[in-house]
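INSTRUCTION: Work out how this chain folds

Fields: amino acid sequence; protein backbone structure tokens

Chain under study, with its fold:
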Amino acid sequence: MKDGRRYKRSCYGSFNSVFRFYKPVLISSENFWKKKVNLYNLNRILYALMLVVFFSCEKEVENAVLISGGLVSSKSEFLVIKNRDITNPKTIDTFYVNKKGEFKDTISVALGYYKIEVDNLNFDIYLEPGFNLDLILDQEKSKVYFKGIGADENEYLFSRQKKRQALKHIDTYKNFVKLDEEEFLKMNDSIGGVYKKLLEDTPIKNIDFLHLERSFIALNMDYNLMSFEVDKKLLTDEKDYKVSINYPKPFSSIDINNETLLKLPFFIPFLANNHYYFLKDKSDLFVKGKFLKCKNCDIDVAYLKEIDKNITNQKIKNKVSYLIAKWHIIGVDSLDLFYKTFKAINTDAYYKKDIESTFNKLNKVKKIRSVVETKLINRNGDTTTLNQYNGKFLYVDIWASSCKPCLVEFPSFNKLADKYIRNITFVGINVWDSNKKWLDVLNKHELKGNQFQLIEGNSTKVDFTKELEINSLPRYLLLDKYGSIIDFNEAAPSEERLQHKIDSLLSLRE
């Protein structure tokens, strides 16, 4: 850790702000023009403002980091520093840039990784109390030059980001699934070796930074190890693929309950996006198309419970369970059970309030009647609503031609529409396409059921997707005979559990 955690707050940005915002106001004010305030009085006012700013800047800043520098080939008036906490993203500070392209200020931050954004140049930066860092940002060359305390760490970090970009076509699941186990393991070790050598070749002596970067390399390799088997199942024809008994075990050098790892932006997503690894030996998992499913269980509820067992550090548990909820609550099989499980294991007030808000919105959506009351057009161009099917159960497919998973489900949709033609009304609602494109897709795929489109150019499109919380497609709904939503995120036509649910509904009705 560097020495010197307290600095006088820099007045550079503050003086800049005074002249930028106050002087124009004073010069253009009615008092100046109508009452002819003389230049002497104006200068006195500005001088007083500068004194106020100066003495306010004399306060020492805890956990201080001094950042200064300049922009090359950029006319941007400000530079933004953000945190890298995916569970609670925030802007840390905004640096104002003067006419010469220079900026300077003191900020208060904890040790960790941050992000700098200026125009189209975005990059990660490592900061810790005591750093005195000077940056020159050249946007034309997409290059950043570092000087001062903290320069070595950030020169390395910038190089590591460039290296990661260069390896993106190799260090990816799309490449790994083409390999057999032996080839993949060699490739994973080789990629890890590239990052390790890059770190070893730097003159960095900062123990905290070295620990975090070594942990990042280990996590990246572990993530690849944990994902290889399931990616083979999901993305190839080897649906029953299994790694060998000698396959390496992850976490040989990582303790997932080590709170220090929260400093790494990759750590929480790493844990929140590994359903298969944590559940494969404890739940009956199978692959349906490109989706991982669980027989006789809600996979997201099971994952929350497994995270609760494996992670003993409450701060880490809170962040991981929150991110799982944030990403998956809309698509869970049992909304009430998922929310109940989340509340039982998460103790953070902010995270609980946010997920509670989403839960309440989803519960509200289940009861709304906007689906049956929305104005639609049919194949003939006539305006109608789904109220015409009052008294019948409705299965609704919301789709668009740009959604490939939507198109894949069309044959199964047609089969079910034929099978249950006398019992349930199958409806397709197209969003986002032009009328011509919609009709072309209907004809090409010979779509059955009752096909409609949201009225093109109407605000109904925005209201419909917003009220139903539709952020991605496809989306399937099941409505009762009164037009209320039974299931906000129903199974796809190809899923066997949909037929079981329909059969149950029909038996109850009889």
Observations:
- Residues 370-509 form a domain with the Glutaredoxin fold (CATH 3.40.30.10).
